[in-house]
């Protein structure tokens, strides 16, 4: 077991290109988003396993002695096995979760208990742990929040139980697990995702585990070469949408106008492949013309997605607001609202970026300046300082990088930016700034590959 606290973080994800075309066998490019979920795990001697989710003001504790008496033989299966619906229902029963529990809280608790009991089931006594998870990711916006949650839980629990080693070395502030350990983390994270989501594609947890960028096509996930870190604006229109309905709309157009829609899907596939080539070329020698090509690809893909019928007035407004400032945007995920991304060229002046952010905020949107191509799941050493507490909760005294937003009641944690080392252009080490995010309370929930 760990001698002290373990701090883990994992990124969210966005779809760069390939939305909706991926449903029809085409390529999609998914990239790690440097808005992250964090986990702090510490062993204790109180005979309890405690889970604290400050974003949603939820704390639960279970007596280890009582958990050990439960019949959890239904969890005894190989690492690659997927939890069945019957097993998930059985877990609800043995831990006393009712169907009328809050859905998002319910799923977050269930995924935690499933991973805790499955990973530590051969340990006696079961470990007493204090686990806190908090996030910079907005939820319900197709950014892989539940996958980042599952990846953090899997990495933290596997390390706490000694199944994977602690990757931090003396004097290091950031550690990454070896490839074989990342494979195991990803496998368990996918099982956690299946508890929450039922039948996820596996893209979200793979991006959160490995970081960088992945190519997805017909169930095959391939890690791309080391890619440059791209600065973006991520904008949440906050318009709700149904992924199922949008997928059905594209399918309907394909059946109605096959000679029109099939070429659109093939063109989106070509855009994804061209983008992959440009990004790989940028690793060797990034140049201004690469960014111009990326901008053209963004514009073309957005027009194609509108032609497929998955645009929305809010996304049109996003594109118009950024276009008048010389920026290029597209939807990411299922469309119909949700989120969009805007590429930020290196030559942009900070005041121009700030003006775009202010204009988007003025439309009622949430906007973050962040990056894609971020590092995957990592163990980090807490900073040698603690942020000031501006709220009544003791959590701000124990969570590195977390403080309570001024004027709140303790339900709205705001993240103090700190740094994570990753890779930039030409394979040169690059520092990634973690934070900030809006101060509105967030919840954990799951979406599929388009989300």
From TrEMBL:
Principal location listed in the UniProt entry: cytoplasm
A single MF term (Gene Ontology): metal ion binding
Keywords linked to the UniProt accession: ATP-binding, Cholesterol biosynthesis, Cholesterol metabolism, Cytoplasm, Kinase, Lipid biosynthesis, Lipid metabolism, Magnesium, Nucleotide-binding, Steroid biosynthesis, Steroid metabolism, Sterol biosynthesis, Sterol metabolism, Transferase
Pathway: Isoprenoid biosynthesis; isopentenyl diphosphate biosynthesis via mevalonate pathway; isopentenyl diphosphate from (R)-mevalonate: step 1/3
UniProt entry tagged with the keyword Zinc: no
EC number(s) on file: 2.7.1.36
Organism superkingdom: Eukaryota
Catalytic activity, reaction form: (R)-mevalonate + ATP = (R)-5-phosphomevalonate + ADP + H(+)
Annotated ranges, domain GHMP kinase C-terminal: 291-356
One term under GO cellular component: peroxisome
Record's subcellular location: Cytoplasm
Record-annotated GHMP kinase N-terminal domain positions: 124-212
GO biological process: cholesterol biosynthetic process; isopentenyl diphosphate biosynthetic process, mevalonate pathway
Family matches, as InterPro entries: GHMP_kinase_C_dom (IPR013750), GHMP_kinase_C_sf (IPR036554), GHMP_kinase_N_dom (IPR006204), GHMP_knse_ATP-bd_CS (IPR006203), Mev_gal_kin (IPR006205), Ribosomal_Su5_D2-typ_SF (IPR020568), Ribsml_uS5_D2-typ_fold_subgr (IPR014721)
Function per UniProt: Catalyzes the phosphorylation of mevalonate to mevalonate 5-phosphate, a key step in isoprenoid and cholesterol biosynthesis.
Family statement: Belongs to the GHMP kinase family. Mevalonate kinase subfamily.
PANTHER family: MEVALONATE KINASE
Protein name: Mevalonate kinase
Lineage: Eukaryota, Metazoa, Chordata, Craniata, Vertebrata
């Amino acid at each position: 077991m760990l001698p002290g606290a373990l701090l883990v973080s994992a990124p969210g994800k966005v779809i760069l290109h390939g939305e909706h075309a991926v449903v029809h066998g085409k390529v999609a490019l998914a990239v790690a988003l440097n808005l992250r979920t964090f986990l702090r795990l510490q062993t204790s001697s109180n005979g309890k396993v405690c889970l604290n989710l400050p974003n949603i003001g939820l704390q639960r504790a279970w007596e280890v002695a009582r958990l050990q008496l439960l019949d959890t033989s239904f969890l005894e299966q190989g690492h690659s096995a997927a939890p069945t619906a019957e097993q998930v229902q059985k877990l609800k029963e043995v831990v006393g979760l009712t169907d009328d529990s809050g859905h998002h809280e319910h799923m977050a608790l269930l995924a935690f208990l499933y991973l805790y009991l499955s990973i530590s089931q051969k340990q006696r006594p079961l470990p007493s742990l204090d686990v806190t998870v908090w996030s910079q990711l907005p939820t319900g916006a197709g950014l892989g929040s539940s996958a980042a949650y599952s990846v953090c839980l899997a990495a933290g629990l596997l390390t706490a139980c000694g199944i994977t080693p602690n990757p931090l070395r003396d004097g290091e502030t950031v550690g990454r697990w070896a490839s074989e350990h990342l494979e195991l983390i990803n496998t368990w994270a996918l099982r956690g995702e299946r508890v929450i989501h039922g039948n996820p594609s596996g893209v979200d947890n793979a991006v959160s585990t490995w970081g960088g960028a992945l190519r997805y096509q017909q169930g095959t996930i391939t890690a791309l070469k080391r890619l440059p870190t791209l600065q973006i604006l991520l904008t949440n229109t906050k318009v709700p949408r149904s992924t199922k309905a949008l997928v059905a709309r594209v399918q309907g157009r394909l059946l109605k106008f096959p000679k029109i829609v099939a070429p659109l899907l093939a063109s989106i596939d070509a855009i994804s492949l061209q983008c992959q080539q440009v990004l790989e070329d940028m690793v060797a020698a990034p140049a201004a013309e690469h960014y111009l090509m990326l901008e053209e690809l963004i514009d073309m893909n957005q027009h194609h997605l509108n032609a497929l019928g998955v645009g929305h007035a809010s996304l049109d407004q996003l594109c118009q607001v950024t276009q008048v400032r010389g920026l290029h945007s597209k939807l990411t995920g299922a469309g119909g609202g949700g989120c969009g991304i805007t590429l930020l060229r290196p030559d942009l002046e900070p005041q121009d970026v700030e003006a775009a952010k202010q204009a988007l905020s003025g439309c009622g949107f949430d906007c973050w300046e962040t990056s894609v191509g971020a590092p995957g799941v990592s163990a980090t050493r807490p900073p040698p300082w603690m942020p000031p507490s501006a709220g009544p909760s003791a959590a701000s005294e124990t969570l590195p990088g977390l403080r309570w937003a001024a004027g709140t009641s303790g339900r709205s944690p705001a993240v103090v930016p700190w740094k994570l080392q990753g890779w930039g252009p030409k394979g040169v080490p690059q520092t990634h700034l973690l934070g900030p995010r809006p101060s509105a309370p967030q919840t954990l929930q799951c979406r599929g590959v388009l989300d």
